[in-house]
Amino acid sequence: MESQEIYMRHSSKHDDDGRLKRRGTWVTACAHIVTAVIGSGVLSLAWAVSQLGWIAGPLALLMFSVITLFTSFLLSDCYRYPDSVHGTRNITYMTMVKNILGGRQYHLCGLAQFANLIGSTIGYTITASISMVAIKRASCFHKYGHEAKCHVSNYAYMSIFGAIEIILSQIPDFNELTGLSFIASIMSFGYSSIGIGLSIARIAGMVVGEDVTSQEKIWNSFQAIGNIAFAYSFSQDTLKSSPPENGSMKKASVTGITITTFFYMLCGLLGYAAFGNKAPGNFLTGFGFYEPYWLVDIGNVFIVVHLVGAYQVFTQPVFMLVESWCAGRWPESRIMAKEYGVDIPLVGTYRVNAFRVLWRTVYVIFTVVVAMLLPFFNSIVGLLGAIAFWPLSVYFPTEMYLVRAKVPKFSMVWIGVKLLSAFCLIVTLVAAVGSIEGIVADLKTYKPFQ
Questions:
Q1: Are residues 113 and 93 in contact, defined by beta-carbon separation less than 8 angstroms?
Q2: Rounded-to-integer distance, Cα 115 and Cα 318, Å
Q3: Is position 6 within any domain?
Q4: pLDDT (0 to 100) of residue 219
Q5: 5-52 confidence digits (pLDDT tens)
Q6: Which of 57, 71, 128 lies closest to 305, judged by CA?
Q7: Phi and psi angles of residue 231, each rounded to the nearest 5 degrees, phi first
Q8: Does the residue 324 lie in any domain?
Q9: Residue 300 and residue 304: Cα distance in Å, rounded?
Q10: Tens-place pLDDT, residues 337-376
Q11: Contact 122/137 with Cβ under 8 angstroms?
């Protein structure tokens, strides 16, 4: 009887596969989506729309939104395999690919996914430091005039951002980031709304489509497509098993993507209407807006707080991958397994692991150093979008759907899905070419650490 009670207490803390029970709902999942999606992408949308124009710009935003929503539905149904309700859980994106598509595809997926995750954390480091610098520059411009040379180096602020992330990276469980994600989501709404409000206040007759050569326009258009694609890529394993995860994730996807697309359209279109062809690459830090400087400062503070949370959402899977592999490789190692309790006033006992502290600190330092070497906002954002969008948001979800649903080859559904994947591949290649050209152009004049 006693052993049965122990089993019941044990099973109440675990899901059907023996892992710790997840506590997430579609609301918390939506918060994670908004946190991850509305980030550095929204800051470049006025510039991206200015390169594509009034017709192609909004169409590109809607196209990427609809495609990502469609493929996220396919991905949600593959969470449990072979049955979407009672099948075995695929606890990570890579595990899902391995179980459904096989080992070779699994390795390709891992390469694409972790390149995107690592690249995104580097991009967030760049963007956060730019916003920190913008706060200092805004005060300088307000005091000495808009023509003043208010140059401020990004490097010290990248280091500050890295120090904050080193501390937050010691959070051992992704579920414990829910509060951080909600705060970050509120921040994203805050700075998006400030940008929208300032754009509305500024809107006037602006010259559109001039001041650049035809060749520059083509390259910028390609890069703009990558910037928009950067907006849409996410997955997670925090949803509790009842109600079924695929239904909750679909609800979260619809809500999260609808919210982000609404803000993207407002930021992109109103920013373009306000600045025309002179839209800055980062519309809150490029000083299209100088006054009221305190409101611009608040917007940039919101950006920094949001990116602090977004960095953690994107970097936790990287942490877990390395830590799981090392724990399996050296299961008897005390540095891997031993945890120490540290009492923190008003917080409680905090679990500290030596390997986790060392590895996560080294990772954050790595992202900061790379960010210092490549501080090219728009080009980096565009390249990240190109790297991530087709393989992670289109190719693997559609291929897994075809296998799981046993869609006959050369049927209408099969052909339609393949055409969608091919179209998105072309878009990805075009965006990558434009972004690489932008990085090459930036490197010709950039001198690191100066």
A1: yes
A2: 10
A3: no
A4: 64
A5: 444 444 455 555 555 555 556 666 666 666 656 655 676 778 778 888
A6: 128
A7: -65, -30
A8: yes
A9: 6
A10: 677 766 666 656 667 778 888 999 999 999 999 888 877 6
A11: no
Cα–Cα separations (whole angstroms), residue 274 to 62, 206, 371 = 21, 7, 30
Residue 3 forms part of a structural domain: no
Q: Tokens 């400087």 sit at which residue?
A: 293
Q: Measured over all CA atoms, what is the biggest interatomic distance in the chain, rounded to whole angstroms? A: 81
Number of domains in the chain: 1
Token duo for residue 366:
């790595």
User: Could you write out the DSSP letters of every residue in 105-130?
Assistant: HHHHHHHHHHHHHHHHHHHHHHHHHH
| CA gap 210, 50 in Å, rounded | 11
DSSP string spanning 197-219? HHHHHH------S-SS-HHHHHH
Q: How far is CA 375 from CA 123, 128, 231, 369, in A?
A: 8, 11, 19, 10
Which residue do the tokens 């967030």 mark? 124
Domain that holds residue 159: 21-443
| Separation CA 273–CA 166 (nearest Å) | 40
Sign of the torsion angle spanned by Cα atoms 371, 373, 375, 379: negative
162 within a domain of the structure (yes/no): yes
CB 112 within 8 A of CB 386: no
pLDDT of amino acid 244: 54
Overall size of the chain counted in residues: 450
Cis amide prior to 292 (ω within 30 degrees): yes
Tell me the C-alpha distance between 324 and 342, whole Å: 23
Domain holding 285: CATH number? 1.20.1740
DSSP for residue 282: S
- Which residue intervals of 276-291 are DSSP H helices? none
Q: Tell me: the pLDDT tens digits for 286-336?
A: 666 667 778 888 888 988 988 888 888 788 888 988 888 888 888 777 777
Closest CA to 234 of 20, 41, 13: 41
Query: Which of 15, 426, 54, 438 has the alpha carbon at shortest distance from 220?
Result: 438
Six token digits for residue 210: 């001039």
> Which two structure tokens, joined as six digits, stand for 424?
């998105």
Determine the distance from the C-alpha atom of residue 186 to the mean position of all C-alpha atoms in its chain, rounded to a whole number: 16
Residue for token pair 């495609």: 67
**How far apart, in whole angstroms, are the C-alpha atoms of residue 29 and residue 251?**
9
Record the tokens describing residue 98, joined without a space. Answer: 């391995």
